[in-house]
Amino acid sequence: MNNQKAILYLIFLIMTSCAEQKEEPIVVYSYVEEPHSYAKPNNAFIEHLNLDITVDFKNERIRGTATYDIVSNNSTQIILDSKHLEIDSVTADGKDTEFSLGANDKLLGQPLTITIDKNTKKIAITYKTTKDTEALQWLKPQQTADKTNPFLFTQGQAILTRTWIPIQDSPQIRISYEARVKVPKGLMAVMSAENPKTKSDDGLYQFQMKQAIPSYLIALAVGDFEYKAISDRTGVYAEKSMLNRVYEEFSDMENMVSAAERLYGTYAWEQFDVIVLPPSFPFGGMENPRLTFATPTVIAGDKSLTSLVAHELAHSWSGNLVTNATWNDFWINEGFTVYFEMRIMEALYGKERADMLALISRQDLDDELDNLKDTPNATKLKLNLKGKNPDDGMNSIAYDKGYLFLRTLEETVGRDKFDAFLKHYFKEHAFSSMTTEKFIPYLSTNLLEKNKVNFNVDEWINQPGVPKNQAIINSDRFKNVEQTLQEFLASDKINNEVTTDWTPQEWVHFIRNFPQTMTDDQMKTLDKIFNLTNSTNSYIQMVWYEQALNHDYHGKNIDSKIQEFLVSVGRRWYVETIFKAFKRNDRTEDALKIYEKSRPNYHSVTASTIDDLLGFEPDQEEVKNIE
User: Fold this and answer.
1) N or C: which end of the chain has fewer CB within 10 A?
2) Domains along the sequence of the chain with CATH
3) pTM recorded for the entire structure
């Protein structure tokens, strides 16, 4: 090779090398700052999960591998969230790669940082859960309805999915997923995905969720339960001894789905099923797509508490379809959902029943505003929860102030215009996340300016309390209830015929409005006539037991009934209400004695709340029993 050719060749090599080393352009993604996740999705994010796990009841562990399809924005690392997990190994495109777990934060857990390169397409994490995993509750056979086999369920909201799967645990990061789950023979596994209707012979189950969902909606339940279809796209799972009762209670589910579709468009998830879990489930319901998790406390025998099903169904649009981008925007999930729930209930059961539910919502909001009077910023719809547990924002402000805001909007612009706005909102933002800052101009452009309406949006969203411009909710049936209560207080007599057709909502309104001056004899009279201490409706039980504590009523063996209720029911709203009443009435020592017995039956979500409320510090053995 002559010198001239050698020089040209050298120039060619240099140019080629420079071209190969040129960085790919950085793409600008629209993920917002997330105070409750370590993930940096604008650098690298997960797109699809392939989960392969084994459920080990003997050792109370889940172990397996989470494999992700990822998108890297020219990044050399991807960060996931992990809490109380043992990470055994990590690969990138099938080859071992470096990884590290950062400092542990009591609330957020640890960042799992994985080394990748700009061409990495897959990462795989082999891991195990531990006894401290907060999302999982392992139940012994005696803690179930049939008392023959163990049970497991997960609860991921708000930031607990990271405790059973290493994942980017932010609501704005949506992924599709598939799963292979191995469980003991004789048990069934179901997930928030396409589900089996019968048990497998070998305990192996395959799942697929084609639509992209946020991590908190990935859910799993394992136990001895069966399925019963209500329609081609609705049905229920429950333990055998409960299946027929659950089926009858929820038999209106197909009608609910149809009513919802008529309001705000096609149901996007193909199947809407409900599984009734053991009593320790910490919420009324959890809107896991395709499979709502529900508490058995709603099985009243008369469909009177099925507004909960309407609420979880409504989440199929508000929450699952259009999701709060961060937990500071939680009202975008729950305010819309309560509004939608009321509309479904009105469509199916009439305006009177919907108005009663709405008025109870308004009363709950007043109670919450009073509870938070010393922390007014906590009564804003848009929150700042940095450094705090997202659960702190899961209260009546997001639900009931959010609902009142939307109902006031509806009454201001008119129902037809508001319905058209909501239908377009859900369609335009389907399978995406929403921030409060993005919603405000969208509302202004597509509803207020379009209809030439002035509305105090900022006062509702960014200011404490409730504006004077608000919808006024009335109920003629509740007015009759109030009149009946006043007549009883004046005469100590009550006309049984007046109460014959009362709904549980009317009874709740009656009991919640007992004045401080209510006497022990009056409590005894009502208990004798209506047997309230032994009510079979869990909602009535909760408010009656609360009032018994408020009025120092000890008749009809009520103290033992309250203890029985707290030991057997794990729904956080119910038990927190009653334990608050103990504390408010200087009976914290009595509460602690009951709590020591009931705590092992509670999911960590409930136990954590009551620990804080009562100042209870569990020892390690007690923690193990719960988690």
Assistant:
1) N
2) 1-224 (2.60.40.1730), 227-316 (3.30.2010.30), 319-462 (1.10.390.10), 480-626 (1.25.40.320)
3) 0.92
